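Following up on my earlier thread - several people asked me to post the actual chain instead of describing it. Fair enough. Here it is, all 196 residues.
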Amino acid sequence: MANNDSHPTPLFDGQTDASALLSDQREAFQTVQIDGATVILSVRPNETLGVTNGIGSDWSDVAGFYLYAEQVTLAGSTRLSRTMCNAHGSAVCPATTNVVATHTLSIIDSMAFDVSGQDGPLPNGVNEGTTPIQPYDGGVGGNRSLYVERLTPQTASIAITATGGAGSPGQQGAAGRPGGAGGDGGAGGQVNMLIV
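Reply from S.P.:
Thanks for posting it. Predicted structure:
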């Protein structure tokens, strides 16, 4: 249906509860796993991120985190997916992607997102032989995007950390045996924020 300007009449005016437009109320909140990433779609009145009684505060064990919701309230701190490298120089460490896109964003106190790469794990034991084990590199920092149409007027702050993980220390050498070199630190991630 068109209005007088011959533009389509919007189905959602931003004032009505969007879930009223759904044919089935179970469609109001959906969680989907796609290639190890978690995708959350919500038209419920509010989703709280950063506390355990909301949609959670620790998403570090998934390959990516995508939240698309009508309204999001941020409270406390949230760990989002983080990368970890395999052995030193032997693998490409793809950065994880984390997205929050919302119509309205509210913040309680302050909010901290951590998408830093994981530190390289400590090497096992002491080198008794002639060749120490290869160190682990730090994971690259994740990519974090925040898209907001309306930010409620508050003085709270958002802190986003996307540092690369530290490389593992070198393996210790036994008496008369060589110690190992440390791993390389991971590159920092990328942070994008768009508030319109």
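Strands lie at 29-34, 37-42, 47-49, 64-79, 97-114, 126-127, 143-151, 158-161, 172-173, 191-195. That should answer part of your original question.
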